[in-house]
Amino acid sequence: GGVSANAIYYDGNGQSGRQPFTWYINGNVNVNLFKVIDLPFSFNLTNAGAGYNYPSLPNRLSLHPTYKWVTAHIGDISMVYSPYTLNGYQFRGGGLDLAPPGRIKVSVMGGQFQRAVEYDSTNKIIQATYRRYGYGGKISYLRNKYTVGLTVFGAKDQVNSLKYKPDSLQIHPQENMVVSLNLAVRPMRGLELSGEYANSAITKDLRDSTKVTSANKNILKALINTRNSTSFYKAIKANLNYRYHNSVIGVGYERIDPGYETLGAYFFNNDLENITVNFSQPFFKQKGNISANFGYQRDNLDGKKSGSNNRNVAAVNLSFVPNQRFIFTAGYSNFSTFMYIKPVFQSINQLTQIQNLDTLNFSQVSQNANANINYIFIKRVATNHSVNFNFNLLNAVDKQGTGSNLSTFYNGAAAYTLAFVPKEITITAAYNVSYNTLGISDFVTQGPTLSFNSKLFKKKIGTSLISSYNTSTASGVRSSDVFNIRFSAAYLLKKQNFNISIMNQYRDVALKGSTNDLIATVGYSFYF
User: DSSP letters of 97-122?
Assistant: First the structure.
């Protein structure tokens, strides 16, 4: 396992409200008792954000003891049952996985999914939330020729957990119940048919005590009290794949009702139907590989929207590594998905690398293209000369806050690296450009970066010096200039690591003046 501790000191006038001193302690430890019981646990502790109330606390502690075929999950944990039920949502509670010898596997879980957070008019980032508890279970039956599984998940808000009801913000206490059935059949070698059918019932406001009876039959009516704000949705997904040696070909179908939702996932796409064909094929004696997914997608499945979107969809990934000196990768997708977008200059201008540990600033991406080339054009015993080029395109809709802003991001970078191999010294010069459009406005950020890395004292101490400058314009008008210089050093002593970094940032913002920030980080880690 390992344990690390970091302390961060901040001094400056650029980020009002930032804590002058923060600390982080993280660890992953596995204890073996009597050579029979494994007790792995992890923890994340910090004073960052002290004074604020969060739906999910930044301080986390989890324990995962294992004894033979029994594994328990205790503390701040997340579990995955399926994309339509419980899918990685972090909660505070417990879970149990039972995998006895034989064909039956069982998993159960339960705990607090959200803390109660009152509305704070001074903090627009953290929304009010009702206290929420969730529970669920999954049972699977496995055979060589087929697998069958049943998943049940439920979540319910506590109506009286908030003193002031945030109804004006369209935040109401909810209840959700999901039942999912999955099946996989393998009739012959290399051929597999798999599918999942999920049924979700969600009540948008538990305070509506009016119970509704309907002639429509649904299995979830026996598991949830039906009210005026209760709706039922279904999702279905099926795939047929055939593998022959290293080649794969298959077809897929997915349909998700408009309004389908599960409280066991952070984000979810609905109102869509996909019909796809996929394949994967290596070439040039395994030096390259291409995988693709083509199909047809449509929305407005219930006909209630004023317009419909019918389109061809595709996802293609290509890699080619003919030798140790050349690497090429490229990809394209116009499938709708959620991802966290972190612009390159956010990393360059970020004051500390230890921040934003639990960001949920995800965007719905409708198109994503990327390409990367790395080429070592001179390779000698003493020196290597290499270049790197990369490009990325994103079309995204910001789903956070109160708006949904359509943006297009273009990011490009070129870098040259000179490496002195025996001395382990590298010098890199790079230039980055980011172009972002938002409505009729466009934003450009660009600038150079120069870095120097070396190892000293018999390679026990690694040092890094990075300097960067970037300037930003909005619709052709200068908006800001940023100059960064960062020095870091790390010393490795057997299983211990000591590190220190100092960064100074000067920022000049149009109409707001200039700021100067200094941040120092000291860290220690121990591995065993």
Answer: EE--SSSEEEEEEEEEEE--B---TT
Based on the number of CB atoms within 10 Å of its own CB, is 334 exposed (0-12), middle (13-18) or buried (19 or more)? middle
Task: Round the average pLDDT of the chain to a whole number and report it.
Answer: 88
Q: How far is residue 127's CA from residue 115's CA, in Å, rounded to a whole number?
A: 11
Q: What is the rounded distance in angstroms from the CA atom of residue 491 to the CA atom of residue 455?
A: 10
Half-sphere exposure of 497 (CA within 13 A, CB side): 14
Q: Which residue from 482, 480, 467 is spatially nearest to 512, judged by alpha carbons?
A: 480
Confidence of residue 166 (pLDDT cuts 50, 70, 90): very high
Look at residue 360 in the predicted model and tell me its pLDDT.
Answer: 45
Separation of alpha carbons 135 and 5, rounded Å: 34
Residue 232 amino acid letter: F
Average pLDDT over residues 34-59: 73
- pLDDT one-digit tens code per residue, 329-380: 999 998 766 554 555 666 666 656 555 444 445 556 678 899 999 999 999 9
346 phi and psi angles, rounded to 5 deg: -70, -35
d(CA 174, CA 260): 14
Residue 71 near residue 64, CB atoms below 8 Å: yes
- Contact, 374 vs 326, CB < 8 A? yes
Q: Whole-angstrom Cα distance, residue 168 to residue 183?
A: 43
Closest CA to 86 of 155, 40, 139: 155
At residue 278, the pLDDT reads: 96
